[in-house]
Amino acid sequence: MRNLYKKIRKTEDGSVIVLVAVAMAGLLMMVGIVIDGGNLYVSKSHLQKTANAAALSGAQEIVNDRTAVETVVDDILASHNEQASLSALESSKESGIRVALKKDVPLFFATLFGIESLPINVEAKAGLDPVGEARGAVPLGIHEQVELVYGDIYELKVDAGDSQNGHFGILALQGPGAKNYEETLKSGFDEALQVGDVVNTQTGNIAGPTMRGVNHRIDTSPNDTVDYIPRDSNRIMLVLVYNTDGVSQGSVRITGFAYFYLEERMGNNDDSIRGTFMEYAGPGMAGEKTPYDRGAYMIKLEE
After folding, report:
1. Nearest to 271 by CA among 224, 214, 217
2. Which residues contact 48 (CB under 8 A, 6 or more apart)?
3. Are the C-beta atoms of residues 97 and 71 closer than 8 Å to each other?
4. Predicted TM-score (pTM) of this structure
């Protein structure tokens, strides 16, 4: 009887050892899967964020040229140490930008089974839409009938109330008065304006405030050169596109937005603002109504 008990005990001891070994193997496998799976997840998340950043930044330059897009995308990839991951870059103003990244991620536990790494692929797309709502507009506007040739010099006459009779308008976004007008010209209107809003035109003598506002913007943009315009240049102004259909005298209706670049300072005897209209992708929203396309674009990340 005693011998039989010993045999049974030895058998149970052996079974426990086998069960423990199996459990340990299963636990190690689970740990290995968690480690490799976690590493793949973190790597893919990082790569996707990098692709998103590259697409959004590259989209800002679509209105310029392919070289500008490539330069920006390369800078973003370099800042994330992912230059070698670029597998495709496509861009055009019509279709937007597509950035595809591919990377082989090294594994740890899976190397026991001869699997050294796994490839991960991500892509991001971004496009441009005309701005339908934005903050920061200056109290200047152009009639939607004006044909814009980007890069050509335009002279915007400083003539209060001209919005009713001509193609250029001085607007009272912050309310009437030369002081409000000057401050808004210098800093931009801090409230959101959108297509369909009706705003008043400015009255009174605003030649002096216009000169001070324009010169302030130029003086606070020291890094601008003939060949280089920083994206945050204070010379780049968001102006309103409007018409006068169905509104009372002294008012205009916003139909879109445009960007105007200040080319020259104004003197005491100048009666116009000299600059160029430009295609530019900046901050803004689509808005509820379709905007009149005058080269002011917002960037959207596409699914």
Report:
1. 214
2. 122, 124
3. no
4. 0.81
